[in-house]
Design goal:
Keywords: Membrane, Transmembrane, Transmembrane helix. By secondary structure, the protein is mostly helical. It has five helices and no strands.
Length: 137
């Protein structure tokens, strides 16, 4: 006989933490998307104006909001949720570092990889998400 405590759904506390995370994460991610679209559209990143370097860094501000959301979420998570996130982060970090080494060596060998940093970023983020999903099963 199983206990009524062994439910497959989320607890009330888990749902409250997920809502709090979404309230922190969603506005920061929306601001990031708006900043990227605005910078690419009106930032003049391919021009000669020295301000283009400042405009290129504008999306970093909303990314700091995303970091804040993740840190706050981890601070309020239980031990198991922290372990799952740590495993996902570790895999994402390792994949991003390997991607950086591969892209760096290819660039050093003369291959032009214009989107190289974005490829490494995407590989790290995608593997973080996948590893976290697998670890939480």
């Amino acid at each position: 006989m199983t206990s009524n405590l062994d439910t497959k759904g989320q607890s009330r506390g888990d749902r409250a933490r997920a809502r709090a995370y979404f309230r922190d994460f969603a506005p920061a991610m929306a601001a990031y998307v708006v900043a990227i679209v605005a910078i690419v559209t009106w930032g003049g990143l391919d021009g000669e104006n020295p301000w283009r370097f400042v405009w290129a860094l504008v999306p970093v501000v909303p990314v700091l909001g995303v970091v804040r959301a993740v840190v706050r979420s981890l601070r309020h998570a239980d031990e198991y949720a922290r372990l799952v996130q740590l495993r996902g982060l570790a895999v994402g970090f390792a994949v991003a570092m390997v991607a950086c080494v591969v892209l760096g060596m290819l660039t050093a060998a003369g291959l032009s990889v214009p989107a190289g940093p974005w490829l490494a970023f995407g590989a790290g983020m995608a593997s973080w998400a996948a590893a976290t999903a697998i670890a939480s099963r």
